[in-house]
Amino acid sequence: MARIADLVLWAVFSAVAGLSGMTTGFTRPVNVPPVELTSPVRDERYHVGDTLHVRWLVYDTAYDCIQVLFTNNDGILWTPLNAPATCIVPGDSCWQDFAWAIPDSVDILGSTLSNECEICLKTHAHDEVIDQSGHFSILDTQSPATNRFGARVTASGNQLREFLKRADGGPGAKIVFVNNDELHYIDFSESFNDTPSVHSMVNSTGGAIPVISPDGRLVTFASGVDHNCRTTSPSAIWACELMEDADPVKVTDSGYVPRFILDAAYPIVIYSTCGMHPLDEYCTWDGCGRVEKRTFIGGTV
After folding, report:
1. Is 52 exposed, middle or buried (0-12, 13-18, 19+ CB in 10 A)?
2. Which of 124, 171, 220, 290 meets the CB 3.0–4.6 Å disulfide criterion with 65?
């Protein structure tokens, strides 16, 4: 019984230690190298100025002197990122999580901008490649949305890809938002494999709380309110095509928090006649007013 208990305790210790990032000697999974590179991964996208975290798991304590190398030309040339240090060892603050602030260029390789970037891990003692990532991309400094609006995308590359895969298959995804009191949108179908463009809807001044229709063709929004539904003037609901030069049509003179009905045979805008939260904190359909709807066909209500 004591022997069985010892085995159970060792298994539990090994699993916990591995999850916490400790270097252990527990048996590694089948077909996994003694040091497994877990970040970055294939097809991720980064921008100059981003922090790329090179992370790895250690299954064999003999591998205790790791070099991190980078290529932007499919492995023709590599440059060490951990220089001037010879290698990274247990006890270093960057052991198993090496943070690299991506520059616009590096020694030997020149510009970092490439779709053929890779990271590899090597042992210093034997000059042996242990594991390496698939191709990932480094793009120019942030996206047009970030440059123009001082915004920051906080979702990971994987989370964004999962979002784009949902609903209509990904490349048809669209995002609408407000900046400087004007509606803007991004249509990912225009440049799915590159940095998408931001379009300004020049006739949408004063818009707030925008929502795209299920088919991606229309947008509805409120005016006369801020983004917390605090009234700045009598609130109205508008709708129009999701286009730069679209002319919004007034749906109603009094309405809050517009939405589209899903799976309707034709576009139907629904809204609340009272969108003010009792504590004046955020938009809500609850607590006052009623829900009304209007059809929007051929640009008319």
Report:
1. buried
2. 124
Instruction: Give the residue from 237, 239, 225, 235 showing the smallest Cα distance to 280.
Output: 225
Total-model pTM:
0.46
Question: Shortest CA distance to 239 belongs to which of 173, 145, 176?
Answer: 176
Query: Six-digit token pair at 79?
Result: 């440059």
Beta-carbon contacts of residue 109 (< 8 Å; ≥ 6 apart): 70, 71, 72, 73, 77, 79
Q: CB-based burial of residue 138 (10 Å sphere; 0-12 exposed, 13-18 middle, 19+ buried)?
A: buried
Nearest by Cα to 44 from 139, 132, 136: 136
| Phi, psi (rounded to 5 degrees) for 29 | -60, 160
pLDDT tens-digit series, residues 86-96:
899 999 999 99
Instruction: Round to the nearest angstrom and report the end-to-end CA distance of the chain.
Output: 78
CA distances from 233 to 224, 265, 276, 280 (A): 5, 34, 13, 15
CA distance 132 to 129: 8
Tokens of 11: 């298994």
The rounded distance, in Å, linking the Cα atoms of 203 and 261 is 24
| Cα separation, 188 vs 195, whole angstroms | 9
Q: How many CA atoms lie within 13 A of 32 on its CB side?
A: 15
Summarised one tens digit per residue, pLDDT across range 100-151 is: 999 999 988 999 999 899 999 998 776 788 999 999 999 887 544 444 444 4
Cis omega (within 30 of 0) for bond into 90: no
